[in-house]
């Protein structure tokens, strides 16, 4: 395995992975997200919280974006990077656009519901006036493996 510091956004993805694992241990689908500021400092980190919060919008990305905005004191997260273990869904891709993040970095591809290149490409729709840069496939194998293991052991889909 390549060590995280050698991979662009590897350190942040390691943190997102830790959030994902913690979410899985709480019985959540193991997805984790981190928001970095323009200097690469961590503004927020979160894991899925949909089950325990009984919140259909309790995805890691939304929670991390909310926490980052709170810590900044502004809903605008320009200059920031959203790092997430799984390709964002339509809601989270939309939230990232609304937060004006500069960049979305993700690990595993979600062919069944991904909205950042797979099923849809919400964030690079030319009709939008804000289009974040996308970096995909960062530590994709590790990110996918925790999901595969989770679903294999829990038999949920
Ligand atoms: Zn989502």
From TrEMBL:
Biological role stated in the UniProt entry: Catalyzes the deamination of adenosine to inosine at the wobble position 34 of tRNA(Arg2).
Cofactor note: Binds 1 zinc ion per subunit.
Alphabetized UniProt keyword annotations: Hydrolase, Metal-binding, tRNA processing, Zinc
Gene Ontology molecular functions: tRNA-specific adenosine-34 deaminase activity
PANTHER family membership: CYTOSINE DEAMINASE FAMILY MEMBER (PTHR11079), TRNA-SPECIFIC ADENOSINE DEAMINASE (PTHR11079:SF202)
Cofactor or coenzyme needed: Zn(2+)
Domain CMP/dCMP-type deaminase: 11-119
Organism lineage string: Bacteria, Bacillati, Actinomycetota, Actinomycetes, Streptosporangiales
Name of the protein this chain belongs to: tRNA-specific adenosine deaminase
Name of a matching Pfam family: dCMP_cyt_deam_1
Protein EC: 3.5.4.33
PROSITE patterns reported for this sequence: CYT_DCMP_DEAMINASES_2 (PS51747)
Source organism (scientific name): Nonomuraea roseoviolacea subsp. carminata
Family: Belongs to the cytidine and deoxycytidylate deaminase family.
Organism superkingdom: Bacteria
Catalytic activity: adenosine(34) in tRNA + H2O + H(+) = inosine(34) in tRNA + NH4(+)
Binding residues for Zn(2+): 59, 89, 92
Active-site residues, Swiss-Prot/TrEMBL: 61 (proton donor)
Gene3D superfamilies listed in its UniProt record: Cytidine Deaminase, domain 2 (3.40.140.10)
UniProt keyword Transport present: no
